[in-house]
Design a protein that fits this description.
Layout (H helix, E strand, L loop, with lengths): L9 E4 L3 E5 L21 E5 L4 E7 L3 E4 L6 E5 L4 E4 L5 E4 L4 E7 L5
Antiparallel strand pairs: 1-2, 2-3, 4-9, 5-8, 6-7, 6-9
């Protein structure tokens, strides 16, 4: 069993985005936390109202989004568009490649 306490994760504050990284990601690097088996990224993001991630690519992965508060608007390059809410779980299969975006579509963080 491996226990990684929440307060030992990487952290970045970009103003519109406050994010905790469980594994090495972006500017956070910890050689003991590069990934866990097939799991590569596990981020806990707080996104300011109306802000988010512009269209960007993913390939050969599953992207899972679970909003805890507010509304998360997702769009992709195959014309899907959906707002997910707390209690929803969205799974996007990137397969050979897809472009997508995610934005906070609510008035709360």
């Amino acid at each position: 069993m491996i226990v990684d306490k929440a307060n030992s994760r990487g952290y970045a504050n970009h103003g519109w985005l406050k994010t905790y990284h469980t594994f090495s990601f972006a500017n956070y690097y910890n050689p003991k936390r590069v990934h866990f088996g097939m799991l590569r990224v596990l981020n806990d993001d707080t996104v300011a109202p109306g802000e988010g991630f512009d269209t960007h690519p993913h390939k050969n992965m599953e992207v899972i989004s679970i909003p805890l508060n507010g509304y998360l608007r997702h769009g992709d390059s195959i014309q899907n568009s959906k707002v997910i809410t707390p209690g929803d779980i969205q799974v996007m299969s990137a397969g050979t490649g897809i472009l997508h975006s995610e934005f906070n579509d609510s008035d709360e963080q």
